[in-house]
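Revision sheet: structure tokens.
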Amino acid sequence: MIYLDYQATTPLAPEARAAMLPYLEDRFGNPHSPHRLGREAAAAVEAAREAVAEALGPGHEQGRILFTSGATEAANWAIQRARALFGGKRAGIVTIATEHACVLDSVRYMADRKGTAAILPVDSTGIVDLDDAAVAIDTDTALVAAMLVNNEIGVIQPIVELSALARSSGALFFCDAVQGFGRAPIPIDACDMIAISAHKIHGPKGIGALWLRHGVDLPPLLLGGGQEGGIRSGTLAPALCAGFGAAARLAADRRDADAAHVERLWTKAMAMLGDDWVLNGAEDRRYRGNLNIRAPGIDANRLISEVRGVAFSAGSACASGSGRPSHVLKALGLADAEARSSIRLGFGRYTTEEEIEAAITQINEAAMRQREWAA
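Predicted:
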């Protein structure tokens, strides 16, 4: 099967698998134990922590990496505990309508608990209006939360400008960099908290991280032994940490090569799709490994079931099966029918040009059959 769902998850890199195996076999110690097996596991965790931090890019030393069960936990932690840093003096959170569900739901959860939420609209390209943001971010704002690269349409938000607005009002800035980590420059200087995930960069599922700027002493979300930095409880999995570290090193080493490869795949895919398909979201301000497109009269779910040799999606894996049109596409102003005629093709390091050619050919042929049967 041709795999074109890289935004949902990525294939595990062989290097990450190799790094994990010893800690699934004879090096099985608890990294929080004092004996030799425990110390070996702890050393692997710390080596992974350093690799993940370095892969964030210049400025990573201004904060620390705390491992979590994934980016969803990291986002919940940042959003649910940021207000506590202001001692009850600020209650507002500002975010964007196209954010991931873990951010939007966390923001609404906090708004229901003696807080306020401002969810900013986007234009037809998926970009937030900075004038709207300037009005919404005020002296009651505790946190501004924005995604670097959108998981459904690949659009890149103006993180630096949003952060400047947040800091001018005294608010903290949280960035969901899950889809951007290893793919796009992360403006660390503009961020106070950053969520990332291993399985989006060819690492294992079940582990992510929250980067915390020094001085941002976030209260715990999970209580217990405080194993991680004294503020995140739970036994770490050395195998997952080692896999994350190996994937992060590889992403850093291959960043330019991967970007050039993705650009070639994007160019081929766009040329083959032609005028029958419309691009959802901005064409220039986006990560090129995300191709979200629509065609009039196409039923996306039916297309996915008919093109059995290609794995692709109609949007976020988290919302699949809900029956509702994508909230991201609706935020762009698309009608329900347009949203339901949209598909997302995600590709990257291990996708070949031959696979793109074969996949687009099959998708185009199935789309043509749908239009012919509907005529």
